[in-house]
Amino acid sequence: MATFLSREVGGVFVKCYAHPEKEAVGVCRECGKGICEACAVEVSGRLYCRACIGKVKVEERRVAKPERATVITVASILFFVFGALGIASSILLISLGTLLSSLPGTHPLWSMVRGWLSLSASILIIIGLVSLLTSVLDIVAGYWLWRSLKVGGVLGIISCALGIFLSMPFVALDVVSTSIGIIINIALIVLIAVGWNTLK
User: Fold this and answer.
1) Domain around 59
2) What is the 3-state composition of the chain as percent helix, strand, coil, each rounded to the nearest 5?
3) What is the pLDDT along the chain (200 residues), one digit of tens a residue?
4) What are phi and psi of 48, to 5 degrees?
5) Cβ partners under 8 Å of residue 171, min gap 6
6) d(CA 175, CA 163)
7) Residue 153 and residue 81 share a domain
8) Alpha-helical regions (H) of 147-195
9) Is 187 helix (H, G, I), strand (E, B) or coil?
10) Helix and strand numbers, DSSP H then E, in the chain
11) Based on the domain organization, do 53 and 147 belong to the same domain?
């Protein structure tokens, strides 16, 4: 039990307010009444009488922040990180596509390559814009998951499913990095599913 407040007030031992025949083991932190061992309730190392304990516990519940599940915390952080990396790579792709489409060319061979470069530039810009959209979704999902809200879980699952769907055409071009991206998206969906019941 906690270290009690002094039972002696002005040289006189305090008696329990509910059991006057018993000597108090301390006084209630809330109302200051003397309390015996049977009436004393300890909360966070402090003594309270039975009449005040309900009020103290209600106030503690109001102050206490709801705990976020570890899997949701991990998912939230991963969504933030991958969203930030995605935005950076999207900006790079859009910039590269814009640069390719604006290259001047006067050489006779340029006219042969110009159509291919223009198509490549357009593809890079489109991929960059789609990647930017999914990256923003990742960051928004991470924010809502951090707040333990189901809307973050739904948005995260949608973003991951979209990421898996959009990466499928690129498996033939780069099997390793595309497969890693798909596995990460599946892992994020699993993290959300495991922590789903903790979301509000």
Assistant:
1) 8-63
2) 65, 10, 25
3) 343 444 444 545 688 888 889 888 888 888 888 899 888 888 878 888 888 887 776 555 554 455 789 999 999 999 999 999 999 999 998 998 888 777 665 555 556 666 666 677 888 889 899 999 999 999 999 999 999 999 999 999 999 999 899 888 888 888 898 899 899 999 999 999 999 999 98
4) -140, 155
5) 178, 179
6) 15
7) yes
8) 150-167, 175-195
9) helix
10) 5, 6
11) no
Say which DSSP state 172 is in.
T
Q: What CATH code is carried by the domain that includes residue 51?
A: 2.10.110
Residue at 84: amino acid letter: A
User: Which of 40, 63, 86 is the C-terminal boundary of a domain?
Assistant: 63
Query: Same structural domain for residues 96 and 194?
Result: yes
Q: Which amino acid is at 121?
A: A
Q: At which residue do the structure tokens 């930017």 appear?
A: 132
